[in-house]
Amino acid sequence: LVTLVPGANVLIISPNYNLSTISFELQRKLIKHFDLEISRDNLKDRIIELSNGSTIRMGSLSTVDSCVGRSYDLIIFDEAALGADGEAAFNVALRPTLDKPNSKAIFISTPRGKNNWFSRFFERQIYQLAETQICDYVPSDGDEAIAGCDPGYRDPTAFVVVVYQPSVDKYHVVDEYLKSEATTDKHAVAFQELISRWAVDPIFIDSAAPQFASDLAYLYDIATIKAKKDVLPGIAYVQTLVETNRLVVAPHCTHTLAMLDQYRWDTKETLTTEKPLHDEFSHMADALRYALYTFTL
């Protein structure tokens, strides 16, 4: 349909020469099937030009440099999971050619495990922490310890301690607690230990748990502040911290690390808006979001 617009340019990129040849022959068959008028069919350069001035070009990762220098309305990246250099080819060479307001790129591939760049498109992972963002905490002047708490009973109660380091403008997850089907007394003992260890203040708690917050305050002298509950804006903020390397996690915080690796969007087709999947990882995710997102507001 894109090529029916006069003067449109389409690029179909494949991992190698052989797949590019197959793709070229397929385009020829489709054009013939739909009885589109061709003004030029160049097998050597793999370019088809329609009578309305629209072009379809074929390319491969090995010849991606020959595809630049043009403006494309559509790029189709075929068998994207096969090419080891696909991510660099798209980001460096091809993405700048999508310079029109309605330009698009379509990535097509069969998932081939997680050991390739294309896997990030289909796994629905919300956060992705780089290895360099997993390191021990080194104190600096002006550091401030905060915490987030997501209470539960049958579901786990999550408590995460985050140190904000203004000298580098980063947040460092330094400690955590995750326990299900425990009494408030047991939770409070664990909280008090973490609060004393890190001099935590303030603590942001799920606003939907007023009784738990009240018990912490009156029975255990643990003051808390109601956290902001905006899920999508909160997730977006934490994503920004992760992507800009402003969130760091201590290696021993295994629950937080597992959450950052496994926390994902719910894929139910009946959903009208995006929401994270409610599972074993969502409680630590909520606690971390409460701490980071509420602290900034």
Account of the protein in words:
- This protein has 297 residues and is α/β, with parallel strands linked by helices.
- The chain folds into two domains: 2-122, P-loop containing nucleotide triphosphate hydrolases (Rossmann fold); 131-296, Nucleotidyltransferase, domain 5, CATH 3.30.420.280.
- It is 31% helix and 22% strand.
- The protein has helices spanning 17-33, 86-94, 119-122, 184-198, 210-220, 231-243, 254-262, 282-296, and strands at residues 9-14, 38-42, 47-50, 55-60, 74-78, 104-108, 144-150, 157-165, 170-179, 203-205, 225-226, 247-249.
- The strands form two sheets. It has a six-stranded mixed sheet with strand order 2-3-4-1-5-6, with helices on one face.
- Helix 5 (210-220) links the parallel strand 10 and strand 11 (225-226).
- The fraction of residues in strands falls at 15-25%
**How many distinct domains?**
2
**Helix-strand string:** EHEEEEHEHEEEHEHEHEHH
Query: What is the correct CATH architecture of the largest domain?
Result: 2-Layer Sandwich
The separation of the N and C termini measures 46 Å
CA-atom Rg in angstroms: 26 Å
Q: Count of DSSP helices?
A: 8
Helix content: 25-40%
Question: Which geometry do the CA atoms define?
Answer: elongated
How many β-strand stretches?
Answer: 12
Main sheet record:
6 strands, mixed
The neighbouring-strand order within the major sheet is: 2-3-4-1-5-6
The poorly predicted ranges are: none
Structural category is: alpha/beta
Give the overall pLDDT as a whole number: 88
What fold name goes in the CATH topology slot of the largest domain?
Nucleotidyltransferase, domain 5
CATH class of the largest domain: Alpha Beta
